[in-house]
Design goal:
single chain, mainly alpha, globular, Tetratricopeptide repeat protein
Length: 196
C-alpha cells in the first residue's frame, strides 16, 4: 500500500494538514507569511488539484488579502473549486458533502466582499444563495455561527437598502459575474500576490 493509499484509508490528508498549519499561522496574526505560504501551496496544488484543497486554501487565502477586489477573486476561486466536483463521483462522496456544507459560508463571504465593493445587488444574490444552501449545515456550533452571520448580513444589507434605496430589478437573479448554469462560469484565476 502506498503512503497516499494509507492516508486515504486512515482518513489523513497531508495537504489539508499543511493548509491547516498555515491557517493557524494566519489566525496568529501573521497574514503576510500566511499569504506567502498559501501562494506556495496553491502553486503546488495547481488548477487541476483536489477541489477540497483548492476550495479550502482559496477560502482562507481570501482573508489574507488587503485589497477587497483580490479578496473577491479568491472567494470566487473557492466557490469555483466547490462547484467543480461532480455529484456523480461516488468515491468522493465525503468530499462532496464537505464542500456542500461550505456553500453557505462561501456565499456569505462573497456577499461580504460585494458589500465592501459597494455592489449591494450582488451581495443580496449571494445572501439568497447562502440561505438556500443552509440545509447542508449541521445543527452544531459551526452551523449556528453561519446562520447567525447570515442574519447579521441580512440586517447590514437592509441598512444599505434604507440608505441607498430599493434594489434594482435584478434582485433574485445571479450576479452578472456569475450568470450561467448553477450560477457558474469561468472565473478569473486568483491574482498573484502583489509585491509591496
Amino acid at each position: 500500500m502506498t503512503g497516499q493509499q494509507e492516508d486515504e484509508v486512515s482518513g489523513r490528508d497531508p495537504m489539508m494538514t499543511r493548509i491547516g498549519q498555515v491557517i493557524i499561522l494566519q489566525h496568529a496574526g501573521d497574514r503576510e507569511e500566511a499569504r506567502n505560504r498559501f501562494a506556495a501551496l496553491w502553486a503546488e496544488i495547481g488548477d487541476g488539484g483536489d477541489p477540497l484543497h483548492r476550495c479550502t486554501l482559496a477560502h482562507y487565502m481570501a482573508d489574507t488579502q488587503d485589497d477587497p477586489a483580490d479578496e473577491l477573486a479568491w472567494d470566487l476561486a473557492a466557490l469555483a473549486a466547490a462547484d467543480s466536483l461532480p455529484d456523480d463521483r461516488l468515491s468522493a462522496r465525503r468530499r462532496t458533502l464537505a464542500l456542500r456544507a461550505l456553500a453557505p459560508s462561501l456565499h456569505l463571504n462573497l456577499a461580504a466582499d460585494y458589500v465592501k465593493l459597494g455592489a449591494r445587488d450582488s451581495a443580496l444574490g449571494h445572501l439568497h444563495r447562502a440561505r438556500a444552501a443552509t440545509g447542508f449545515l449541521t445543527d452544531d456550533v459551526y452551523g449556528a455561527g453561519v446562520r447567525a452571520a447570515l442574519d447579521r448580513m441580512e440586517t447590514r444589507l437592509h441598512h444599505m437598502e434604507v440608505a441607498e434605496g430599493p434594489p434594482s430589478t435584478t434582485e433574485g437573479r445571479p450576479p452578472p459575474d456569475e450568470a450561467g448554469p448553477r450560477g457558474t462560469q469561468e472565473r478569473p484565476t486568483p491574482p498573484p500576490r502583489r509585491e509591496p
